[in-house]
Amino acid sequence: MALLSLIIPVFRVEKYLAACLDSILAQHRDDVEIVAVDDASDDGSSAILAEYAQRHPQITVVTLERNAGLGAARDAGIAHASGRYVWCVDSDDWLPDGALAAVADRLCQVDPDLLITGYSRVYEDGQVEDHPVTDISPGRQLPDVFAFADEPGLLDVLWIACNKVIKRDRLIESGITFQPGWYEDVSFVIPLMVAVDRIAVLDRDCYAYRQHYDGAITRTVSDRHFDVFDQWQRVFTYLDAHPGRAAPIRATVFGRMIWHCLQVLGHPHRVPRSSRRRYFRSTSELYRRHLPSGGYPIPGGGNEAVKQRLVAANAYSLFELMMAGWLVRKRLFGGPTRRMGNVTKPPTPAMTRAGSRVSGGDTEEGTVR
Q1: pLDDT per residue over 64-81, tens digit each?
Q2: What is the pLDDT of residues 118-162, one digit of tens each?
Q3: How far apart, in whole angstroms, are the C-alpha atoms of residue 366 and residue 181?
Q4: pLDDT averaged over every residue in the chain
Q5: What does the pLDDT average to over 295-316?
Q6: pLDDT (average), residues 313-317
Q7: Residue 369 clears pLDDT 90, i.e. is over it
Q8: What is the DSSP string of 222-245?
Q9: Any domain includes 36
């Protein structure tokens, strides 16, 4: 049995696929298998997979007859995996040098159900943001293993699936799978963190998360962003089915849900203008449906606290007035920018990485692929 199965869904990524595979194969691990899922890709990706599989016996290619989407492709890969742990790696991203060795060492040291690593966002203009796991508990060292209820700060770190390494048996026992629709990581990662007993972190950048400007879901104006409500409803359906595990973190999850829905609405390139009122109303309905009986910790001040109170009151017109004022202030006084410095060059000539690693907060950009 391999220690680690890397699950790589593949669809229309011929520009990036070789770089992704090379970043893994260059790390020379005999205890790692690669399960690449050809999600009925209609570009040159299938040929690239076939060529790599012929040369590298640790690569298994699973071919889907019809395009099933990112979540279903990941599930198909997990079903074919034999490793003790599984790690979903998207085929337009890559693993930095030394990531596999660092992950393998940490898995063997603490035997977690779930390992969460640091990651970086790499932008097309060459800038890079670090997202270290120390953001979970600033100024405080985490225990080797812990439960979600003991460290609810996990919710303050972006819940992408790709920096989560999961014990395969525990995942199968939980019955948690990826669901269709955009924002699919939400309804996978949060129930998973609730389900497992032993969570560990690795304070190292182990995943390079490529940020696309053109064609990215995060910059696509569409009513499909309403999928976020279905994904959060699935989260609370899971919490309702596991009240004992969910009770300590339910209020925290609720607050994060409202924050996330408002982040989507606040992004200028997501919800169509004609759908904003309906989206806000759906957020208010979700608020009323899942508001904990004992309340929840509303942010103490600032715009976020006001926005959440407006959601509670279903006060869309006031919300739009507030957002218009915020945009005016931003245009007059500007906003935060990413800083630059020296980093490692990525494994593709299509990008330069002459930018800096910056300790970045959770900006929600990139929660969907």
Answers
A1: 999 999 999 999 999 999
A2: 999 999 888 999 999 887 888 888 999 999 999 988 887 767 999
A3: 15
A4: 88
A5: 87
A6: 96
A7: no
A8: SGGGGHHHHHHHHHHHHHHH-HHH
A9: yes
pLDDT higher than 80, residue 360: no
Contact 196, 151 (CB under 8 A): no
Query: Do 108 and 37 touch, CB atoms closer than 8 A?
Result: no
Same domain, 19 and 75: yes
Q: How far apart are the first and last CA of the chain?
A: 31
Query: Measuring CA to CA, which residue among 200, 198, 220 is closest to residue 369?
Result: 220
Distance CA 289, CA 240 (A): 12
The Cβ of residue 339 has, within 10 Å, a number of other Cβ atoms equal to: 14
Domain extent for 272:
241-333
In this structure, the answer to whether residues 25 and 141 fall within a common structural domain is yes
User: Does residue 359 form part of some domain?
Assistant: no
CB of 133 within 8 A of CB of 80?
no
pTM: 0.88
Q: How far apart are CA 3 and CA 108, in angstroms?
A: 9
Is 236 within the bounds of a domain?
no
Report if residue 259 sits inside a domain: yes
Residues 304 and 250 in one domain: yes
CATH of the domain at 75: 3.90.550.10
